[in-house]
Amino acid sequence: MSESSKPAMENGGVDEALSSMMGKERNLVLSVLCTFGSWYNRSGSAERHYHTFSHTNSSDRLERQREHFAREWNIFLPPRHTRAVKVCPILAFIAALLVVPVILGKILTSPRMRQETRYLLLANSLLSDMLFLSVYMLNSCVIAAGVLMSQWTCATILFLMGALYSVGILSTMAMVLDTLLAVLVPLRYLALWPVSRTRQVVVCIWAVSVLFPAASVGVYVWYHSTTPCSHHICSLPLLLVLTVSHSTPLQASMLLTVTIILLILFLAFSGYLALYCHTHMSGVWRGERSNRAKGTFLIHYLHLFLSFCPMLVLVIELLIYSFHSPLDLQADLWVSLVVCNVLLVLPKALAPYLYGLRYRDLRAPLHAFYSLRRPTSITPIV
Fold it and tell me: What does the alpha-carbon distance between residue 299 and residue 295 come to, in Å, rounded to a whole number?
């Protein structure tokens, strides 16, 4: 091979790499336009850019509109400022991955713990939380890579996240009912809530959880089937702000779903409040048992509060979309990012530590697995 042909081949490889990078960037900009086209058309920017570039041909005008839109979009969400928010689902998944497999392994391998309702319900809740964080983390990584999705792929991801989140909420309600029956009617507890019925309740929870996100995802598919874009970025915070805010059916279906979740959380809180009043009158809060009871109630209340906060913010945001026009796109995007990437995943990342370190039967295997407490060997003196 001659010396003159080597630089030509190297330049050819560089040109191919540059062309592939430009193709990826063009696809990413096209996907951004498809996802946020409704806001772009309603904001008046499209008209402004159309009049600006009306003297050029159509291809050049479309290319410049893409560049303008990409530039404006970067102003709303600078990558340097949102990187910490976007990495939160990954950190939550890692935090849950360190604890949940150990707890599930201990519960499933222990014959005694498999016969206790509280551990079965806890295992079901932690499993759903772990799967939810896995799906959300994978979706965040796909979004960060700029991969385009079809509407059915995005609908499947949103459906899985909604179903898994509903399983966690209903499992929390089942844990409240189990605790109420164990405290209020201890003599009839085994007859009212045997292990066989607990397994049936777990199956019913997974079956009912399919109904919660079905309406919202169905309306989402119907809404996007009328748009010409076949591929777009599937981001829950961005879809919430730039798609739900302009679709009344999506607002109504999501508002109904979030209201039902809030009602379930309120019933769970009422159950723990009734349990607190009953135990307070029975004298549990006096003596040495009071410290452990207070710690248990504090864990339950903290978990419910962390689960209640994102749903309340979502209701307020949906009500603003329903009765008022979006106030500020930048503020709405920041609120949605914090709600979805921080508040929504925080209780699911903390639940394994709150409950796993509270129960003695689960705390011991965690300490043994990570060698936090090494047994001290005593050498006998002869």
Answer: 6
pLDDT for the residue 32: 52
- Crossing angle of the two packed helices 248-282 and 289-323, in degrees rounded to 10: 160
The pLDDT value recorded for residue 226 is 54
CA nearest to 276, candidates 155, 354, 352, 179: 179
Copy the structure tokens of residue 95. 């935090």
CA angle 109, 116, 308 (to 5 degrees): 105
Q: Residue 347: is its pLDDT beyond 80?
A: yes
Q: What is the pLDDT of residue 76?
A: 59
Q: Encoding tokens for residue 195?
A: 């292990």
The tokens describing 139, both together, are: 């979706």
Q: Rounded to an integer, what distance in angstroms lies between the CA atom of residue 161 and that of residue 156? A: 9
- What whole-number distance in Å separates Cα of residue 305 and Cα of residue 41? 39
Closest to 109 measured CA to CA, from 359, 361, 375: 361
Distance, CA of 261 to CA of 259 (rounded, Å): 5
Token representation of residue 220: 């989402």
Give, as one character, the DSSP assignment of residue 381: P
The confidence score (pLDDT) of residue 368 equals 85
199-218 confidence digits (pLDDT tens) = 999 999 999 998 878 777 77
- Type of residue found at 13: G
Residues contacting residue 115 through CB under 8 Å, at least 6 positions apart: 195
Query: Maximum CA pair distance of the chain?
Result: 102
Task: Give CA separation, 268 vs 54, 264, 304, 365, in Å.
Answer: 60, 6, 8, 29
Per DSSP, what are the bridge partners of residue 231? Answer: 150
Q: For residue range 121-140, what is the model confidence (pLDDT) as tens digits?
A: 999 999 999 999 999 999 98
CA distances, 203 to each of 133, 167, 179, 210 (Å): 21, 10, 19, 12
List, for residues 48-102, the tens digit of each pLDDT value: 444 444 444 455 554 554 455 445 555 556 666 677 788 899 999 999 999 999 9
